[in-house]
Amino acid sequence: MEANPVLGVVLHAVGGLAAASFYIPYKRVQNWQWESYWLVGGVFSWLVAPLVAAAILAPGALEALRNTSFTAIFWTYLFGLLWGIGGLTFGLSVRFLGLSLGYAIALGFCAAFGTVIPPLFMGTFGEMLSNMSGVTTLLGVLVCLGGIAVCGWAGVLRERETEAEEDNAVVEFSFSKGVWVAVFAGVMSACMAFAFAAGEPIAAAARDAGVAATFSNVPVLIVILLGGLTTNFVWCAYLNVRNGSYRDYASAGSASLVRNYVFAALAGVIWYLQFFFYGMATTKMGAYDFSSWTIHMAFIIVFSNVWGLLYREWKGSRPKTLAVLSVGIAVLVLSTVVVGFGNYLAS
């Protein structure tokens, strides 16, 4: 498998754009509770899209799964299930912090944990510290954490300035509540990186079955996202029963029921595309492909902040606050450059 870090970074950028954009169609869903449109979108992103992608791009996916040990499939599924918990709380972080700040804090922590813990788990962390490429990659993670801190500072300033405004773009904005949810979401969401590592035997079996190396992670995503679907289905179904929102699936009140399904499904498909491109990108990143997680997360943060500004989530903020936010985004962009350079040295 030939390394091409430049192409890998480009694919991560496309995946980051998809991840930062998936929540936008949900804004067009009307008269449905959160758990209803989240579950409908989830069925398309965690079940329908992975199966369709496998049928088209990786026709040997089922054969690869049959030829993979139960242990590898179990751990891949389990990490996917844990990641699903992070996905649930991530939705709450966006609810309390908005697109820009919610993405920045949750995914910043997700990037750091998802990059550092896999080599610790596999016992290769010491090896990283012994060469320039590994040290450079870890430096990129530290830069990413610095970007998180700066974005967090912008969030504190924003809360002070806008908490009294009734027309705030994020009606339920609460930095103190949202930041704790975002930290937990980030830690749990990092399990996606572990899931890809655990699913490497599936990818290898896919390549042996004739699947192109670029698409060898497509069958891995089937198992990972099945775990995510399990977690989200249980929680959303519980909320549907508790809140009586199960009626949403058959009615949208004065809104169009078909329209709600279309936009929820669109959000789900866009969401899936982030990991579709992520899976392709990891095959191009070389020896330190685990650093893909940092690059992917940083691109999501950058693009989500662009959406946040376009949706005027920072309306009413002072120039100083916007300047701090801009610095934070710039630092996060810098972190992707540093991590990418570390991969270049390794390759």
What does this structure look like?
This protein is mainly alpha-helical and 347 residues long. The chain has one domain. 78% of the residues lie in helices and 0% in strands. The chain is built from 14 helices and no strands. Helix 1 packs antiparallel against helix 12 and helix 13 packs antiparallel against helix 14. It is globular and about 55 Å long.
In short:
The protein has 347 residues and is mainly α. It has one domain (5-346). The chain has helices at residues 5-21, 23-26, 34-57, 61-66, 70-122, 125-129, 132-162, 175-189, 191-198, 200-208, 218-243, 257-282, 292-310, 319-346.
Top keywords for this entry?
78% helix; 347 residues; mainly alpha
Helix and strand layout, with pairings?
Blueprint: H1 5-21, H2 23-26, H3 34-57, H4 61-66, H5 70-122, H6 125-129, H7 132-162, H8 175-189, H9 191-198, H10 200-208, H11 218-243, H12 257-282, H13 292-310, H14 319-346
β-strand percent reads under 5%
**Helix tally?**
14
- Compute the separation of the termini in Å: 12 Å
| Strand and helix order | HHHHHHHHHHHHHH
Instruction: Give the structural class.
Output: mainly alpha
* Portion of residues within helices: over 70%
Domain module tally: 1
